[in-house]
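Translate sequence into structure tokens.
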Amino acid sequence: MKDVEFILKHTKDISSKQFSEDELLQDSLMFRLIQISENVLKLSKDFKNAHSHIPWFAIKGLRNRIVHDYGNVDLTIVFDTLKDDIPEIYHMFKEI
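Result follows.
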């Protein structure tokens, strides 16, 4: 949850342009996305099945894109994920 909260805090007032021009911010936030996914991988299959409304596969998939294709990651997709999907995931995680 701390990684999700970090992302929310650091994306609250940034634009897509600011994100695309700040390599340190990109690295920091993508690292947090990787951490979220790594923690998801540690969850049991039963737990994930019990909370099947959470997009576990998508979380893992984004991690794989960042880790294995780092130099070619589409920053627009990452930014949209940070701004649109992470707040939704935050609310889903809080319900657990």
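Note: The chain has one domain: 2-8+18-95.
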